[in-house]
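[Automated response] Your request has been received and processed.

Submitted sequence:
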Amino acid sequence: QVQLVESGGGLVQTGDSLRLSCAASGSTFSSHQMAWFRQAPGKEREFVASIYSNERGTYYAEYADSLKGRFTISRDNAKNMVYLQMNSLKPEDTALYYCAASLRSGYVERHPSDYQYWGQGTQVTVSS
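Generated structure:
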């Protein structure tokens, strides 16, 4: 069982930066694919970024095409933490941001149904 707790959301202005954090429980954290999704009111949950390892222990990060260059996902396996650095925020980034974990790794998983564990979400609101 994996428990995820997000933090770091808030109200910011256009152009600001924000870093989200996700604390994960479990002793096999380093092998999990970790991801961020977001969901705006009235919209489907969408993939933001994921970070996963291959069989050699090399980590890879993948992003939604529209977010490349502004968002950065990272992880600290020693602390069981995953981060999402968000720069140059726009009003359209306003959403509830979720941390998710998948027991599968080795390739990117972009669909919410691919993930077995979810946090409660942290709200990010970007004012214009």
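Summary generated for your ticket: The two ends are 40 Å apart (CA to CA). DSSP finds no helices and eleven strands in the chain.
If you did not submit this request, please reply to this message.
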